[in-house]
Protein backbone atom coordinates (compact mmCIF):
# COMPACT_ATOMS: atom_id res chain seq x y z
CA UNK A 1 0.00 0.00 0.00
CA UNK A 2 3.00 2.32 0.44
CA UNK A 3 3.41 2.62 -3.33
CA UNK A 4 -0.31 2.94 -4.14
CA UNK A 5 -1.71 6.41 -4.79
CA UNK A 6 -4.63 6.76 -2.36
CA UNK A 7 -5.30 10.48 -2.78
CA UNK A 8 -8.66 9.83 -4.46
CA UNK A 9 -9.95 7.51 -1.73
CA UNK A 10 -8.46 8.75 1.60
CA UNK A 11 -11.36 7.54 3.78
CA UNK A 12 -11.12 3.97 2.52
CA UNK A 13 -7.35 4.03 2.92
CA UNK A 14 -7.70 5.35 6.49
CA UNK A 15 -10.09 2.59 7.58
CA UNK A 16 -8.01 -0.07 5.85
CA UNK A 17 -5.03 1.19 7.85
CA UNK A 18 -7.02 1.15 11.09
CA UNK A 19 -8.31 -2.38 10.50
CA UNK A 20 -4.82 -3.65 9.70
CA UNK A 21 -3.51 -1.96 12.86
CA UNK A 22 -6.20 -3.69 14.93
CA UNK A 23 -5.38 -7.08 13.39
CA UNK A 24 -1.63 -6.61 13.85
CA UNK A 25 -1.92 -5.54 17.48
CA UNK A 26 -4.38 -8.31 18.36
CA UNK A 27 -1.93 -10.82 16.92
CA UNK A 28 0.92 -9.11 18.74
CA UNK A 29 -0.90 -9.29 22.07
CA UNK A 30 -1.60 -13.01 21.66
CA UNK A 31 1.95 -13.66 20.49
CA UNK A 32 3.54 -11.71 23.35
CA UNK A 33 1.39 -13.44 25.97
CA UNK A 34 2.25 -16.87 24.55
CA UNK A 35 5.98 -16.13 24.36
CA UNK A 36 6.15 -14.86 27.95
CA UNK A 37 4.08 -17.82 29.11
CA UNK A 38 6.43 -20.24 27.37
CA UNK A 39 9.60 -18.45 28.53
CA UNK A 40 8.32 -18.61 32.12
CA UNK A 41 8.99 -22.37 32.10
CA UNK A 42 12.69 -21.78 31.48
CA UNK A 43 15.41 -20.49 33.84
CA UNK A 44 15.15 -16.80 34.70
CA UNK A 45 17.69 -15.52 32.17
CA UNK A 46 15.54 -16.82 29.30
CA UNK A 47 12.52 -14.87 30.53
CA UNK A 48 14.77 -11.82 30.65
CA UNK A 49 15.82 -12.46 27.05
CA UNK A 50 12.23 -11.92 25.92
CA UNK A 51 12.07 -8.59 27.76
CA UNK A 52 15.43 -7.64 26.29
CA UNK A 53 14.16 -8.45 22.80
CA UNK A 54 11.45 -5.81 23.12
CA UNK A 55 14.03 -3.10 23.79
CA UNK A 56 16.47 -4.38 21.17
CA UNK A 57 13.71 -4.13 18.56
CA UNK A 58 13.09 -0.53 19.59
CA UNK A 59 16.82 0.18 19.30
CA UNK A 60 16.90 -1.24 15.77
CA UNK A 61 13.88 0.86 14.79
CA UNK A 62 15.52 4.01 16.21
CA UNK A 63 18.74 3.34 14.28
CA UNK A 64 16.72 2.88 11.09
CA UNK A 65 14.98 6.19 11.80
CA UNK A 66 18.31 8.01 12.12
CA UNK A 67 19.61 6.38 8.94
CA UNK A 68 16.46 7.38 7.06
CA UNK A 69 16.87 11.00 8.18
CA UNK A 70 20.47 10.99 6.99
CA UNK A 71 19.63 9.46 3.61
CA UNK A 72 16.33 11.36 3.25
CA UNK A 73 14.64 8.96 0.82
CA UNK A 74 11.13 9.45 -0.47
CA UNK A 75 8.49 8.66 2.14
CA UNK A 76 6.90 5.80 0.19
CA UNK A 77 10.33 4.20 -0.39
CA UNK A 78 11.15 4.59 3.31
CA UNK A 79 7.86 2.92 4.30
CA UNK A 80 8.44 0.10 1.82
CA UNK A 81 11.90 -0.58 3.26
CA UNK A 82 10.60 -0.57 6.85
CA UNK A 83 7.72 -2.96 6.18
CA UNK A 84 9.86 -5.23 4.01
CA UNK A 85 12.38 -5.49 6.86
CA UNK A 86 9.60 -6.55 9.21
CA UNK A 87 8.40 -9.26 6.81
CA UNK A 88 11.94 -10.61 6.41
CA UNK A 89 12.37 -10.72 10.18
CA UNK A 90 9.08 -12.59 10.59
CA UNK A 91 10.29 -15.26 8.17
CA UNK A 92 13.55 -15.57 10.12
CA UNK A 93 11.53 -16.07 13.34
CA UNK A 94 9.32 -18.65 11.64
CA UNK A 95 12.36 -20.64 10.50
CA UNK A 96 13.90 -20.30 13.96
CA UNK A 97 10.75 -21.66 15.58
CA UNK A 98 10.86 -24.69 13.30
CA UNK A 99 14.39 -25.54 14.42
CA UNK A 100 13.94 -24.69 18.09
CA UNK A 101 11.08 -27.18 18.37
CA UNK A 102 13.63 -29.91 17.65
CA UNK A 103 16.15 -28.64 20.20
CA UNK A 104 16.55 -30.97 23.20
CA UNK A 105 17.15 -28.15 25.66
CA UNK A 106 13.98 -26.39 24.49
CA UNK A 107 11.93 -29.57 24.66
CA UNK A 108 13.26 -30.34 28.14
CA UNK A 109 11.71 -27.19 29.58
CA UNK A 110 8.81 -26.59 27.18
CA UNK A 111 7.23 -30.07 26.93
CA UNK A 112 4.74 -30.74 29.77
CA UNK A 113 5.91 -34.35 30.19
CA UNK A 114 9.50 -33.18 30.52
CA UNK A 115 8.47 -30.48 33.01
CA UNK A 116 6.93 -33.14 35.27
CA UNK A 117 10.01 -35.31 34.91
CA UNK A 118 12.17 -32.30 35.77
CA UNK A 119 10.15 -31.56 38.92
CA UNK A 120 10.25 -35.21 40.01
CA UNK A 121 14.03 -35.22 39.60
CA UNK A 122 14.37 -32.08 41.72
CA UNK A 123 12.25 -33.65 44.45
CA UNK A 124 14.08 -36.98 44.33
CA UNK A 125 17.49 -35.39 44.90
CA UNK A 126 16.12 -32.74 47.29
CA UNK A 127 17.68 -29.98 45.19
CA UNK A 128 17.05 -26.27 45.23
CA UNK A 129 15.10 -25.41 42.02
CA UNK A 130 17.25 -22.35 41.32
CA UNK A 131 20.49 -24.31 41.78
CA UNK A 132 19.13 -27.06 39.56
CA UNK A 133 18.40 -24.55 36.80
CA UNK A 134 21.97 -23.27 37.04
CA UNK A 135 23.40 -26.76 36.70
CA UNK A 136 24.18 -27.38 40.39
CA UNK A 137 21.89 -30.35 40.83
CA UNK A 138 24.07 -31.81 43.58
CA UNK A 139 23.23 -28.92 45.93
CA UNK A 140 20.56 -29.86 48.46
CA UNK A 141 18.05 -27.58 50.13
CA UNK A 142 19.91 -27.97 53.41
CA UNK A 143 23.13 -26.31 52.24
CA UNK A 144 21.87 -24.23 49.30
CA UNK A 145 23.87 -20.97 49.14
CA UNK A 146 20.84 -19.08 47.81
CA UNK A 147 18.44 -19.82 50.66
CA UNK A 148 17.70 -16.84 52.84
CA UNK A 149 17.71 -14.37 49.96
CA UNK A 150 14.54 -12.54 49.08
CA UNK A 151 14.23 -14.36 45.78
CA UNK A 152 14.59 -17.78 47.38
CA UNK A 153 12.00 -16.91 50.00
CA UNK A 154 9.67 -16.13 47.12
CA UNK A 155 10.64 -19.31 45.31
CA UNK A 156 9.46 -21.16 48.41
CA UNK A 157 6.08 -19.52 47.77
CA UNK A 158 6.23 -16.83 50.44
CA UNK A 159 6.61 -19.21 53.33
CA UNK A 160 3.59 -21.34 52.42
CA UNK A 161 3.71 -25.09 52.30
CA UNK A 162 5.80 -26.65 49.59
CA UNK A 163 4.10 -27.51 46.28
CA UNK A 164 3.93 -31.22 46.97
CA UNK A 165 1.92 -30.49 50.14
CA UNK A 166 -0.46 -28.08 48.47
CA UNK A 167 -3.82 -29.42 47.31
CA UNK A 168 -4.37 -29.90 43.59
CA UNK A 169 -6.05 -26.96 41.91
CA UNK A 170 -8.98 -28.12 39.85
CA UNK A 171 -10.28 -25.14 37.89
CA UNK A 172 -8.52 -22.58 35.75
CA UNK A 173 -10.14 -19.81 37.78
CA UNK A 174 -8.59 -21.15 40.97
CA UNK A 175 -5.21 -21.27 39.24
CA UNK A 176 -5.49 -17.66 38.13
CA UNK A 177 -6.55 -16.58 41.62
CA UNK A 178 -3.64 -18.40 43.23
CA UNK A 179 -1.18 -16.82 40.80
CA UNK A 180 -2.72 -13.41 41.39
CA UNK A 181 -2.42 -13.81 45.18
CA UNK A 182 1.23 -14.85 44.83
CA UNK A 183 2.49 -12.19 42.41
CA UNK A 184 0.08 -9.27 42.73
CA UNK A 185 2.87 -7.11 44.13
CA UNK A 186 5.10 -7.90 41.15
CA UNK A 187 2.23 -7.14 38.78
CA UNK A 188 1.78 -3.79 40.51
CA UNK A 189 5.49 -3.12 40.00
CA UNK A 190 5.24 -3.96 36.30
CA UNK A 191 2.21 -1.69 35.95
CA UNK A 192 3.92 1.26 37.65
CA UNK A 193 7.16 0.82 35.68
CA UNK A 194 5.43 0.86 32.31
CA UNK A 195 2.95 3.60 33.23
CA UNK A 196 5.79 5.94 34.20
CA UNK A 197 7.95 5.04 31.21
CA UNK A 198 5.21 5.17 28.56
CA UNK A 199 3.60 8.31 29.92
CA UNK A 200 6.92 10.10 29.36
CA UNK A 201 8.36 8.20 26.41
CA UNK A 202 8.03 9.15 23.65
CA UNK A 203 5.38 11.88 23.97
CA UNK A 204 7.12 14.11 26.52
CA UNK A 205 10.71 13.24 25.57
CA UNK A 206 10.09 13.95 21.89
CA UNK A 207 8.90 17.48 22.75
CA UNK A 208 11.92 18.48 24.78
CA UNK A 209 13.38 21.45 22.91
CA UNK A 210 17.21 21.39 22.62
CA UNK A 211 19.00 24.45 23.93
CA UNK A 212 22.74 23.81 24.13
CA UNK A 213 23.36 22.76 20.50
CA UNK A 214 24.91 19.42 21.44
CA UNK A 215 23.89 18.03 18.05
CA UNK A 216 21.71 19.20 15.18
CA UNK A 217 18.09 19.73 16.23
CA UNK A 218 16.98 17.32 13.46
CA UNK A 219 18.81 14.49 15.25
CA UNK A 220 18.20 15.53 18.87
CA UNK A 221 14.89 13.71 19.36
CA UNK A 222 15.79 10.58 17.33
CA UNK A 223 19.08 10.18 19.26
CA UNK A 224 18.27 11.34 22.80
CA UNK A 225 14.64 10.20 22.84
CA UNK A 226 14.09 7.09 20.73
CA UNK A 227 17.59 5.63 20.47
CA UNK A 228 18.65 6.60 23.99
CA UNK A 229 15.63 5.08 25.73
CA UNK A 230 15.64 1.76 23.89
CA UNK A 231 19.43 1.37 24.01
CA UNK A 232 19.79 2.06 27.72
CA UNK A 233 16.68 0.03 28.57
CA UNK A 234 18.53 -2.86 26.91
CA UNK A 235 21.54 -2.06 29.11
CA UNK A 236 19.22 -2.31 32.13
CA UNK A 237 18.03 -5.71 30.88
CA UNK A 238 21.65 -6.87 30.60
CA UNK A 239 22.48 -5.72 34.13
CA UNK A 240 19.51 -7.72 35.46
CA UNK A 241 20.95 -10.79 33.79
CA UNK A 242 23.84 -10.74 36.27
CA UNK A 243 22.54 -8.79 39.27
CA UNK A 244 19.20 -9.67 40.84
CA UNK A 245 18.72 -7.06 43.55
CA UNK A 246 16.48 -6.09 45.25
CA UNK A 247 14.25 -9.08 45.89
CA UNK A 248 10.57 -9.26 44.95
CA UNK A 249 9.38 -7.79 48.24
CA UNK A 250 11.35 -4.54 47.97
CA UNK A 251 10.98 -3.74 44.27
CA UNK A 252 7.94 -1.61 45.04
CA UNK A 253 10.18 0.98 46.76
CA UNK A 254 12.10 1.65 43.56
CA UNK A 255 8.98 1.53 41.39
CA UNK A 256 7.41 4.27 43.52
CA UNK A 257 10.62 6.34 43.46
CA UNK A 258 10.43 6.31 39.64
CA UNK A 259 7.24 8.38 39.88
CA UNK A 260 9.58 11.35 40.45
CA UNK A 261 10.55 11.16 36.78
CA UNK A 262 7.15 12.62 35.88
CA UNK A 263 7.64 16.07 37.51
CA UNK A 264 11.33 16.03 36.53
CA UNK A 265 10.67 15.83 32.80
CA UNK A 266 7.69 18.18 32.96
CA UNK A 267 10.04 20.78 34.47
CA UNK A 268 12.57 20.22 31.69
CA UNK A 269 12.48 22.30 28.50
CA UNK A 270 9.23 20.62 27.45
CA UNK A 271 6.73 22.36 25.19
CA UNK A 272 3.47 20.51 24.46
CA UNK A 273 2.75 22.27 21.15
CA UNK A 274 -0.70 22.15 19.50
CA UNK A 275 -1.36 25.79 20.40
CA UNK A 276 -0.78 25.24 24.13
CA UNK A 277 1.59 27.61 25.92
CA UNK A 278 3.79 26.62 28.82
CA UNK A 279 2.92 28.30 32.13
CA UNK A 280 5.31 26.38 34.44
CA UNK A 281 8.80 27.62 35.09
CA UNK A 282 11.64 25.60 33.56
CA UNK A 283 13.89 24.27 36.31
CA UNK A 284 16.06 21.77 34.42
CA UNK A 285 16.85 23.89 31.38
CA UNK A 286 20.12 22.34 30.18
CA UNK A 287 20.22 19.51 27.64
CA UNK A 288 22.65 17.44 29.71
CA UNK A 289 20.14 17.36 32.59
CA UNK A 290 17.47 15.93 30.30
CA UNK A 291 19.95 13.43 28.79
CA UNK A 292 21.10 12.14 32.20
CA UNK A 293 17.49 11.89 33.38
CA UNK A 294 16.49 10.06 30.20
CA UNK A 295 19.34 7.55 30.53
CA UNK A 296 18.55 6.97 34.22
CA UNK A 297 14.87 6.40 33.49
CA UNK A 298 15.67 3.99 30.64
CA UNK A 299 18.17 1.91 32.64
CA UNK A 300 15.84 1.71 35.64
CA UNK A 301 12.93 0.78 33.38
CA UNK A 302 14.87 -2.05 31.72
CA UNK A 303 16.42 -3.28 34.96
CA UNK A 304 13.31 -3.28 37.14
CA UNK A 305 11.01 -4.66 34.42
CA UNK A 306 13.48 -7.52 33.84
CA UNK A 307 13.58 -8.34 37.55
CA UNK A 308 9.79 -8.41 37.72
CA UNK A 309 9.48 -10.67 34.68
CA UNK A 310 12.23 -12.96 35.99
CA UNK A 311 10.81 -13.18 39.52
CA UNK A 312 7.15 -13.70 38.61
CA UNK A 313 7.36 -17.33 37.35
CA UNK A 314 9.57 -18.25 40.33
CA UNK A 315 7.10 -16.96 42.90
CA UNK A 316 4.48 -19.59 42.03
CA UNK A 317 4.56 -23.39 41.88
CA UNK A 318 6.27 -24.59 38.67
CA UNK A 319 3.05 -25.87 37.09
CA UNK A 320 1.63 -22.32 37.29
CA UNK A 321 4.68 -20.60 35.77
CA UNK A 322 3.07 -20.30 32.34
CA UNK A 323 0.01 -18.53 33.75
CA UNK A 324 2.29 -16.26 35.75
CA UNK A 325 4.21 -15.26 32.60
CA UNK A 326 1.00 -14.60 30.69
CA UNK A 327 -0.42 -12.43 33.47
CA UNK A 328 2.82 -10.45 33.60
CA UNK A 329 2.67 -9.93 29.82
CA UNK A 330 -0.94 -8.74 30.10
CA UNK A 331 0.11 -6.29 32.82
CA UNK A 332 2.82 -4.89 30.51
CA UNK A 333 0.21 -4.18 27.84
CA UNK A 334 -2.11 -2.62 30.42
CA UNK A 335 0.70 -0.41 31.72
CA UNK A 336 1.56 0.68 28.17
CA UNK A 337 -2.10 1.47 27.44
CA UNK A 338 -2.64 3.52 30.61
CA UNK A 339 0.75 5.24 30.33
CA UNK A 340 0.20 6.38 26.75
CA UNK A 341 -3.22 7.77 27.62
CA UNK A 342 -1.89 9.57 30.71
CA UNK A 343 0.63 11.33 28.44
CA UNK A 344 -2.31 13.00 26.66
CA UNK A 345 -3.36 14.60 29.94
CA UNK A 346 -0.05 16.32 30.81
CA UNK A 347 -0.40 19.27 28.41
CA UNK A 348 -3.89 20.12 29.68
CA UNK A 349 -3.03 19.83 33.38
CA UNK A 350 0.21 21.77 33.52
CA UNK A 351 0.23 24.09 30.51
UniProtKB/TrEMBL annotation:
SUPFAM superfamilies: MFS general substrate transporter (SSF103473). It is a multi-pass membrane protein. This is Equilibrative nucleoside transporter-like protein. It is found in: Membrane. One of its GO terms (molecular function) is nucleoside transmembrane transporter activity. The chain crosses the membrane at residues 12-31, 52-73, 79-100, 182-202, 214-239, 251-268, 288-311, 323-346. Belongs to the SLC29A/ENT transporter (TC 2.A.57) family. InterPro entries: Eqnu_transpt (IPR002259), MFS_trans_sf (IPR036259). One of its GO terms (cellular component) is plasma membrane. Keywords: Membrane, Transmembrane, Transmembrane helix, Transport.
Amino acid sequence: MAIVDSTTWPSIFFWMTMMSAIAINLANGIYQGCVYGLAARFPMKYTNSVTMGMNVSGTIAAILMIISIALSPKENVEALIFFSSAVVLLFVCLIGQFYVNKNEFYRFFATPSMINANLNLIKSINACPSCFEKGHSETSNNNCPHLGRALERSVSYNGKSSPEKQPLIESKMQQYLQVLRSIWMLLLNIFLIYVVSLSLFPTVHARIIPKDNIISSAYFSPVFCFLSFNLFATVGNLIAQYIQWPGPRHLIIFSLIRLLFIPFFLYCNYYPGDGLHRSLNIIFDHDWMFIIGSITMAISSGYLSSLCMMYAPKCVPPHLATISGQMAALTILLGILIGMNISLVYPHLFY
